[in-house]
TrEMBL record:
Amidohydrolase-related domain span: 17-258
Protein name per its UniProtKB record: Amidohydrolase family protein
Protein origin, superkingdom: Bacteria
Keywords: Lyase
Pfam families: Amidohydro_2
Length: 264
């Protein structure tokens, strides 16, 4: 696949899954090409088969309206896009989970404790853990080292209490010192999977994470449209990995996690 990129060809890969993406405009600054059609065009160019996304509207403002936007995008591109159900702890988590419980367009749950200013260890997330355990849905949560709401150590505490839930550590702690913290958490709690998107991520760190944890605990994510999928993908394509491990990180591990999805 790296040779294809160097030759300016689309990689011949049928199992690239982007595990972390967003949809729509963002309130704090302009992001071009933020709609579903633009996303799929870039996916086609890069050989990405499936992208799992959540809407900025759901994360930043109104969970129900934003989740409806996500559902519409998935319906527009079936088989290419899948949705994370955003749960805001201040906006009736139980009602939101019940409303979308049997909707196959949503394959996981997205949390953003630091943005919502609510610690991941708090009781308002209890319905999320119960739902994830019952359905097999992975939970993608933002993690920020040293933050009072979603430090990796806090995620580790929740993961230890809920070993039947799979947690994706979004951004792997976000900063370089956060990578160390997140790796240590994933070593202690095998139900924590590291997700790779972020401005500080690079190939050497990806090599290190796979070397310590194995490719079954590391998944590719781009954070598109914040970060161009081409740059995020290049980090994995040019990391020093075996082709078996590279294939797992790029999509095999995430496909396995999504296959556990059950109707409640």
């Amino acid at each position: 696949m790296a040779d294809a990129v160097l030759a300016r060809r689309t990689p011949d890969a049928r199992e690239i899954v982007d595990a972390h993406a967003h949809l729509g405009p963002y309130s704090l600054f302009f992001i071009p090409d933020n709609d579903a059609d633009a996303m799929v065009r870039v996916m086609d160019r890069c050989g990405v088969q499936l992208t799992v996304l959540s809407s900025h509207l759901a994360i930043q403002c109104e969970a129900r309206a934003g989740n409806e936007m996500t559902a519409a995008a998935v319906s527009r591109h079936p088989g290419r896009l899948a949705g994370y159900l955003v749960v805001n702890p201040w906006q009736d988590p139980v009602a939101e989970l019940e409303h979308w419980a049997d909707d196959p367009r949503f394959v996981g749950i997205k949390l953003h404790p630091s943005l919502h200013d609510y610690r991941i260890t708090g009781p308002r997330y209890r319905p999320v853990w119960e739902y994830a355990a019952a359905t097999g849905c992975p939970v993608l949560t933002h993690t920020t080292t040293h933050h009072h709401c979603d430090d990796p150590a806090m995620l580790g505490e929740v993961a230890e209490q809920h070993p039947d839930v799979t947690f994706l550590a979004g951004h792997t702690g976000l900063t370089r010192d956060g990578f160390d913290d997140a790796i240590a958490v994933a070593q202690r709690t095998p139900n924590v999977v590291l997700e790779l998107c972020g401005s500080f991520m690079h190939g050497d760190e990806i090599t290190r994470m796979v070397g310590v944890l194995g490719s079954g605990q590391v998944v590719f994510g781009s954070d598109v449209p914040f970060i161009d999928v081409r740059m995020s993908l290049g980090r994995v394509l040019f990391a020093v990995l075996s082709e078996t491990d590279r294939a797992a990180v790029l999509g095999g591990t995430m496909r396995r996690l999504l296959a556990a999805r059950r109707t409640p």
